[in-house]
């Protein structure tokens, strides 16, 4: 009730619906459309590799900053919090630890 306010990272992912729509389009595609739709389906399959979006986001933030979370955990936590103001220290530390595996 009187706790610290915290920003929450909410990720909406509609890849399954998009993937299914492209699969239906592949089924009904003309020969000219087929290669592009097949490529789009491969891209969607690769994007949904099972890694949570928040982990991909944190990994990209740290890669852009040139920070290795395995060797510079404190700097990694600081950078993640800098990119998402309001993210609690505990949440940022959890994200970084999850990156370390």
As a percent range, the share of helical residues equals 55-70%
What is the ordering of alpha helices and beta strands? HHHHH
Computed Rg: 19 Å
What is the global morphology?
A: elongated
Polypeptide structure, described:
The protein has 101 residues and is mainly alpha-helical. The chain folds into 2 domains: 15-47, no CATH class; 53-100, no CATH class. The protein is built from 5 helices and no strands. Helix 4 crosses helix 5 (89-100). The longest helix has 14 residues, at 34-47. The radius of gyration is 19 Å and the shape is elongated. The two termini are 33 Å apart.
Set out the fold topology.
Blueprint: H1 15-27, H2 34-47, H3 53-65, H4 73-83, H5 89-100
Helix pairs in contact: 1-2, 3-4, 3-5, 4-5
Write a brief caption for the model.
This protein is an all-alpha fold and 101 residues long. It is 62% helix and 0% strand. It has two domains: 15-47, no CATH class; 53-100, no CATH class.
What labels describe this entry?
mainly alpha; elongated
């Amino acid at each position: 009730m009187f706790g610290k306010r915290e920003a929450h990272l909410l990720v909406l992912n509609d890849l399954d619906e998009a993937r299914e729509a492209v699969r239906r389009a592949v089924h009904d595609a003309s020969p000219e459309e087929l290669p592009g739709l097949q490529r789009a389906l491969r891209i969607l399959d690769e994007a949904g590799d099972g890694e949570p979006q928040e982990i991909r986001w944190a990994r990209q933030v740290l890669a852009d900053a040139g920070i290795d979370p395995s060797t510079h955990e404190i700097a990694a936590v600081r950078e993640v919090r800098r990119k998402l103001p309001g993210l609690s220290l505990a949440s940022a530390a959890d994200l970084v630890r999850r990156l370390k595996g």
